[in-house]
Specification:
The structure is a homotetramer. By secondary structure, chain A is an alpha/beta fold. Chain A has 2 domains: about 120 residues, Rossmann fold; about 160 residues, 2-Layer Sandwich (Dihydrodipicolinate Reductase, domain 2), CATH 3.30.360.10. Chain A has 12 helices and 13 strands. In chain A, α7 packs parallel to α12, α8 runs parallel beside α10 and α8 crosses α11. The longest helix of chain A is centred in the middle third of the chain and has 16 residues. Chain A is globular. Chains in contact: A-B, A-C, A-D, B-C, B-D, C-D. At the A-D interface, β7, β8, β9, β10 and β13 of A face β7, β8, β9, β10 and β13 of D.
């Protein structure tokens, strides 16, 4: 039984971790922290967990986490990089769901996250937790940087094309749409239902923090520079991300459906839909799965990839548990075999 | 392993049965029928089931169901009563999720469902599948009439009060709100998103088919006539029912919180919330659970019970599987231990 | 041209006032205050007003409002009662959309609003701005207490029955459902879309501030004590209130459809639907209208009234402008002739 | 007073025409047709129109429209092309909101709409009713082809760039998102709220009928071939379109904000937002307005234009009335001065 701690148990990724781990046969939740709700029962705040989680929020401190085999950070950016080193020093593994260890270059991190990185020495060691790329590294990692929700959907859409060299790398466009839970559980006027319901908008068109992360991931597999335009949109629904990715095909690109099916054959959580499909975000609601369809509009030389995930599962907590399973030698699907909630 | 067939696998209760049964360790899905989609793969229609259900729709006929231990009817009203007898004669047990066997009096059934009942002899045998009332009978039943979604939420809200005699039985009001999936997967203009989104209305105020069912259920436990006003409402959400039930307390009614907690102690799927709570339908989304809170506004002698379920789970497919578990001597919670999807 | 000021122009009732008044041919907006956004253009915060409102937010102070003929308060409770006296002393009329002047008894006000009333002498003078009851008084009033959204929907549903004495006054139940905009434009976690979307709950079942207001209004027309249970619910939509009101008929109650049609004949903003109707909140979206239907379920002696309004229009800003029209001798419908936005 | 007829008054564009025209001071609705609801009052089907529209549905026939000055077709594709000739021959002007007269080449029309065009001689005469391009022609036209909703949003986003030659014309991408009312008022399972709520998907990625229309419009102003990828998406909201358009800038493109502001200076219904803005569809809800923002992500040479309209207003009925105003020499804004419904 893996003894796990969760730092930041009151946000949406935190409660989603609790939902998954409470039913995971190989994990025991031994500590859940929350700066704001110390002493309160977890299931008082989240009545969906009544009968499944018998924990009380504790202060976020290294002391509270002694005895854990693994700690998840489901915190705002800037917390994990201040605590991870102490935990690792005590042989406690760390899976960070925030952005603290996602970028390799501390200068780039500082530019996009607005403060110097306080643990730059750990950036090198941290493994980017996208199992479809880094499975072997994850198995032996001590520190995992769980990918962002947008980067997961976009990279899975592009990997077969970039790895195989069939698209131009200088003009990729990722138009991505997200449900509102991606913004977290924070009291902010723009996220009120009266503001986000029945409406749609783009945001951060000038530049979004997930842009350098996607670019870094694609460049790593490409081995050279990738030019990408990334525009996120806020959609009036709670869960789900839909990436619509556009790229220009090089000559001699072969059968794209086969390319995708081959690339992801055997992957437990990536599902290539039949030709002509249009994935719905609802079909992956609540589950650790990415469904993908590949199209060439009007049989031209633009390829359009449609990729859907649940931002809180394959885009966050589910992927984190997938990483945990790999790190601890479990069946990769342990605790993650569930079916999307339709309708 | 129980061999199960599902008649009517293309509606929302049918696909919800599939979602639950596909992960049930003691059940094997051996036949799924659909009049309209014969020959099509189930997971072509429902891509959330890809990798979990490997079946093809077959014609709805008794022959197709030979070899089943149990058949679920997830059909429109009027189908089960035409096939159940033949199945029972072949020693195949039946759980009907439609209304065909819910009312004991064939004359009442005919009045509310607009045609004569064709198997009135089975009405006597059929057991009303509300485990919180009929657990012992269900264990030995061959034919289960699964309660309607509204009746489940309202009866669970009222049972402790009616059984204990603390309320007047001549002036009960049940104001109930339902998500749109309760209307089923039918091509009808009033159920378009443009019609039901961002709006709210009552319907069938003159009289709704679930009224005689609720009345029958309450009168059975009361042992006498119950007068009930029942008004259903359509809410712009997909899943969930919230019953708000009003009754007048008799003198000497005692502590109501304790009454409810005692009544449902040990019930695996009824959860009495702490005093002062207001249940959210989201907290039972996707799960077989009823959460209930009890209030006396302004400390007066009106009791208000708030009761929430997921109409497709505890209000339909989940409760059906709970009945199956009881009929086949399994752990009552088999296949049903899951946590509500929040947010 | 009436020179109007708006105190609290950044909340939903404030921006709704702006939307209506900007197109009102007899009103000129001369001052819009906001504590938090002084110096900012109104249409920067609300781009829907671009080209229609050419104002800049100013500090909320009596000085900023000198020169107005009329000031609307679209503020949280507790503001209007601190400024209204000074404005009235300068011959500036006041329409308060908050709760400060709705209750006649300062002790009752203090109990429900959690502080002593600072202008109890104005409570007597204030006219409750429900034109369907107080039209004559409104015409000559200096200070209007605009009714709450719930009280508007419930009182309009009950007035014909209470005035005519056809129902028992000791067992009225008002089960009322509201869209989330009724909670205002405040940064609070429970009002995030992730919290309120796709879910439904009751709240304040123990007792809600609108209860004494409804009770006072009904008792005034009844001339005696009224016992009412009032339970509000939060619905996953932005605009709209649906009141479902239950009462017990006395003997000899006559034709209820006619009773309602007669009572509201000539009322420009109350519309009695044909027998058998079920009003949708969408049909009054964005407009100053109450649509009502009357039912007797199963022809029994319980009457059920269904009443819908847009909480921000007939439940707030529209009704406020209706009051303004009456106070200044304009056509009562000036600026309010518009059609509900369907779909 | 212009005497107008509406053919197809039961769809969403039809009822939206009624909503606008009922309050238009220069138009009188003299005939509303509906194949399915002949003899029924219009306001029985659409209770939002009670008190504003006093008409009864009649059979769709030329006879029923004699006496009209103008007929709007708010019909499925294929109807207007069968009736328009007869109406024009009787000196009745025609504004077609369907696709029948949008494409100039009958062969292209036949390929995308699946049948031969029955009135190819009228295609030449028909004026494409985008006032921002064809204002002068519209003033003297007898037959208007009202643009599609997607083409309106995309063309308004691109016109300044294409006309001025600052972008490459061989690699334009339009990723467009629409609310569900764009699919019309048809009883189809994919448009049920249970299917479209809380989910998001692309559709017709292979090729959509609005693609040749957009291409034709852009090529007309460019004077040469335009290559465009167009992908529509279905969003869980009722009204609103958001186009996100990507293009590659040529060298020496100048200040884009100024380019857009200059191009649309004086346009009553196109509003260029300040630099850095992200338009929300809600801000144009219910109104005849397009709001646009221009961005260069990371100051690169990709331009991203964000363009929002209400698909039923500037994308259909509002634009049709704007055309009517021009054709009949009225103020172009008559009947269209209204403010977006926020929240």
């Amino acid at each position: 039984m893996i003894r796990v701690g969760i730092v930041g148990g009151t946000g949406y990724t935190g409660v989603e971790l609790l939902r998954i781990l409470a039913l995971h046969s190989e994990a025991a939740i031994v500590a859940v922290t929350s700066r704001s709700d110390v002493g309160k029962r977890v299931d008082e705040l989240y009545p969906n967990l009544r009968g499944f989680v018998d924990a009380v929020f504790v202060e976020p401190s290294v002391d509270a986490l002694i005895g854990c085999d693994l700690v998840f950070f489901a915190t705002p950016n800037g917390t994990a990089m201040r605590m991870a080193g102490d935990l690792l020093a005590r042989d406690i593994k760390v899976i960070d769901l925030s952005a603290d260890f996602r970028l390799k270059d501390p200068a780039v991190w500082a530019r996009w996250y607005g403060e110097p990185h306080v643990s730059p020495h750990l950036l090198e060691e941290a493994v980017y937790g996208l199992p479809e790329v880094n499975r072997a590294l994850i198995r032996s990692a001590r520190l995992i940087a769980c990918p962002g929700c947008y980067p997961t959907s976009v990279q899975l859409a592009l990997l077969p094309l970039v790895e195989s060299g069939v698209i131009r790398l200088d003009r990729i466009i990722a138009d991505v749409k997200s449900g509102v839970s991606g913004a977290g559980r924070k009291a902010e006027i723009p996220m009120l239902m009266s503001e986000t319901g029945e409406s749609l908008k783009a945001y951060s068109v000038k530049g979004h923090r997930h842009w350098p992360e996607i670019k870094q991931g694609l460049e790593q597999v490409a081995g050279r520079t990738v030019e990408l335009t990334f525009v996120p949109h806020l959609i009036p629904m709670i869960r789900g991300i839909h990436a619509t990715v556009y790229a220009e095909l090089n000559a001699g690109y072969g059968d794209l459906q086969t390319l995708f099916e081959e690339r992801y054959r055997g992957e437990p959580f990536v599902d290539i839909l039949p030709p002509g499909s249009h994935p719905d975000t609802r079909n992956v609601r609540g589950v650790n799965r990415c469904q993908i369809a590949v199209h060439r509009p009007l049989d031209g030389n633009t390829v359009v990839i449609l990729s859907v995930i649940d931002n809180l599962v394959k885009g966050a907590a589910g992927q984190a548990v997938q990483n945990m399973n790999l790190m601890f030698g479990l069946d990769e699907t342990a605790g993650l075999r569930s079916i999307g909630l339709y309708p």
